[in-house]
Amino acid sequence: MSLKNALRAATALTVLTTSATFAETLTIATVNNGDMIRMQGLTDDFTAKTGHEVEWVTLEENVLRQRVTTDISTKGGAFDIMTIGMYETPIWGANGWLVPLDNLSEDYDVADILPAMAGGLSHDGTLYAAPFYGESSMIMYRTDLMEKAGLEMPDAPSWEFIRDAAAAMTDRENEINGICLRGKAGWGEGGALITAMSNSFGARWFDMDWNAQFDTEAWANTLNFYKGMMDASGPAGYATNGFNENLSLFQQGKCGMWIDATVAASFVTNPNDSTVADSVGFALAPDNGLGKRANWLWAWALAIPAGTQKQDAALQFIEWATSKDYIELVAAKEGWANVPPGARISLYENPNYQEVPFAQMTLDSILSADPNNSTVEPSPYVGVQFAAIPEFAGIATEVSQEFSAAYAGQQTVEEALEKAQALTNDAMEAAGYR
User: Fold this and answer.
1) Is the dihedral of CA 405, 411, 414, 418 positive or negative?
2) Which residues in the chain come in under a pLDDT of 70?
3) What is the pTM of this model?
């Protein structure tokens, strides 16, 4: 063997040994949404490139939030990477609970992240989580049923139009509900929908002195409108339906309209999963002419808890999963309509993606949400479907439980709002806001 070949063989052996020595097994907590399930199916690509293995803990949305919050606040150390969002990231980053993502590689191109997403996942200008996908909310509707009802969906409809269209599209004999909306308890489930909806009705969670505002006409109008429309045109048991339940109903052809996360567009238009894939249209979330639409702003993002012993490997995974190359990987395997949306500028500049029917409406919805100015009257908090304060998750979960009980007919709307007002003010006073 020549000296050159001997050196080459020795170098190769060193690389393999080093790779094997430092190969890690990462434990990742994530939500049971379709894009995350798809990511799990592609992690062999990550393992082939890095040598690191991945163990997934996949949880329903409410359970995920509870598990990761408990783990990080108690320094439990169960996870090396957590799937979190715009609510948790700035708060946890400020607490020192997350590893700053300030050393991402040049190839990763941090500047390509949509400003709305980067801003919502940062604290004091430092990125603490990388967006796997970003979303707003919009209307997905059956074009065939809308036509059958003799109606035409405006690009930017009012709530009154939506209510009337839902009634016209409802066909109980054929199990078609005119509209499907979240009613499930949980601040990020039904709580997110009703809060975004309330913004368009002129409601807010708090006034400028942190007083609860559930005793206002605007909140009464919001809940009464929601319940009246859903009782008349929604599915049975809507009080317990969240994102995944409504997605299933829509894909089965049982919803005329669904107002929910823009990310759902790829699932309702996928002919492998959706029986109505060729009859879906899109429109902006509704308004009431008050200057605010009922759309939210969110990102499901990947973050590294400060307690992990596997920071380097975790950062490699985050770079892989939220990169331009990952988008290309999904596109090659499953088509451009199925890539993670709403996170990168370059995606919306890509001619291939511009041909996807919901791409522009998704971007328009994201850009129309303003977390710094989400309510008609001034409010002291940042956030569209949440208030970015540490106490919000606990308070809003309780409030959403009262609302769901009203949807289910277990109490009146008035009773639910009275309880929401009292428990919110009590919690804010205990926390020292009032």
Assistant:
1) negative
2) 1-21
3) 0.88
